[in-house]
Specification:
Elements: E1 10-14, H1 17-25, E2 32-36, H2 37-42, E3 54-58, H3 71-84, E4 89-92, E5 95-98, E6 116-122, H4 128-142, E7 149-152, H5 167-177, E8 181-185, H6 186-196, H7 200-203, E9 212-217, E10 219-223, E11 226-230, H8 237-247, E12 254-257, H9 267-285
Parallel strand pairs: 1-2, 1-12, 2-3, 3-4, 4-7, 7-8, 8-9, 9-12
Antiparallel strand pairs: 5-6, 10-11
Helix pairs in contact: 4-5
């Protein structure tokens, strides 16, 4: 008797107004839209225009930081979890907030009463102390949010002094300390491999792949001063190879293409990328 086929993962797109127009014209290609909490927080009417299932993404909990997320922000995240009926909340394994007293002589006024916003998700020092702190944050916030929390690997653009663990072992240690799902950003992982100098296809297997629930793919901006995450171009060949390798081992429930930074991203290329991913999923499922 043949084994039952895998349930095929859903395939979706990271939200932008341009992406929404594409999705509306190509409904057979798009299963859902991934929408950032921060957009809904500041432009709540956005949701009125979205007639697709929503995955809620977030960059506000600052899981790896030492400053607790404010009650106001936490309540707003909980509100949008309920409003969107998202099956999970993806959050960066990074810190985004710091104490105002540590912000320098001219701290940016982001929001009155809120901790100082750094303006970018910054990867933490990766050691046992950080594992313990992050696990406690996941436990604290997970108990307040009525949906599973997924942690997303941030790109490593520089090696943090004090780190004693590789990113893969760091994430694995967190997963051993507390039960949490993984949002695996393959482009971020590729970027980290460029800086640290490891084979991403080999290092991938050091991650707790059984915990992968969602996968992100995005483009890479290759420059003389380094490689950078870029949502305005298609994922390179190696990132697609990483997805193919991952699908031989893991069973994610969703694959999200993050091509939402440019209104000029060709719709024909967007459709090609969606079909490329679906073909790979079909091949793996078979």
């Amino acid at each position: 008797m043949k084994p039952a086929p895998r349930e095929k993962p859903s395939v979706g797109l990271a939200y932008s107004s341009t992406v929404l127009r594409f999705a509306e014209a190509n409904r057979e290609e798009v299963d859902y839209l991934e929408v950032p909490f921060e957009l809904l927080r500041h432009a709540p009417d956005t949701i009125e225009h979205i007639d697709f299932p929503i995955l809620l993404h977030c960059a506000s909990l600052s899981l790896a930081g030492s400053v607790a997320c404010s009650e106001q922000t936490l309540s707003q995240i909980a509100y949008w979890i309920a409003k969107t009926r998202t099956p999970w909340l993806g959050e960066h394994l990074a810190y985004i907030t710091s104490k105002r007293t540590e912000a320098g002589p001219i701290p940016e006024e982001y929001a009155p009463g809120e901790p100082y916003n750094i303006g970018y998700t910054v990867g933490p020092v990766m050691n046992e102390a950080a594992v313990e702190r992050i696990a406690k944050s996941i436990e604290r916030y997970g108990g307040r949010l009525q949906t599973p929390l997924l942690i997303e690997n941030s790109p490593i653009y520089f090696e943090s002094p004090g780190s004693t663990l590789s990113q893969s072992k760091f994430i694995a240690a967190i997963s051993e300390r507390i039960d949490v799902g993984l949002l695996l950003d393959l482009s971020h992982f590729y970027l980290s491999s460029r800086l640290i100098g490891y084979d991403p296809l080999v290092e991938l297997e050091e991650l707790p792949l059984s915990k992968v629930v969602e996968v992100h793919l995005s483009g890479i901006d290759e420059r003389a001063d380094g490689s950078w995450d870029d949502h305005s171009c298609a994922a390179p060949k190696l990132v697609h190879e990483m997805l193919a390798h991952l699908l031989k081992i893991a069973r994610p429930r969703a694959v999200t293409l993050e091509y939402n930074w440019s209104s000029r991203f060709p719709h024909s290329l967007l459709k090609d990328e969606l079909q490329r991913v679906r073909a790979l999923l079909q091949e793996t499922n078979a």
